[in-house]
Specification:
The protein is mainly β and 66 residues long. The protein has one helix at residues 18-24; strands spanning 2-5, 8-11, 32-36, 39-40, 56-61. The protein has a five-stranded mixed sheet, with no helix packed on it. Strand 1 and strand 2 form a beta hairpin. It is globular. The chain starts with a strand and ends in a 5-residue tail after the last strand.
């Protein structure tokens, strides 16, 4: 299936969840926010939220500094 992740067209296997996609990339779930189709997805829903054909996904990382 095709979708757009952080502005780049991507191809994923059907049925992949937000949690699974993040884990496969080694991203710390406590350090990112996920938005699908302009709506923030609550962290507790990531294991049950399947990515779908045509979704527009934004993954934003927190960056510390001072």
């Amino acid at each position: 299936m095709r979708l757009v992740i952080n502005g780049k067209e991507s191809t994923l296997e059907p049925g992949q969840t937000v949690a699974g996609w993040l884990a496969a990339r080694g991203l710390d779930p406590q350090a990112v926010i996920v938005e699908i189709n302009e709506a923030i997805v609550p962290r507790e829903l990531w294991p049950d939220t399947a990515l779908k054909e045509g979704d527009r996904v934004e993954v934003v990382s927190f960056v510390g500094g001072g």
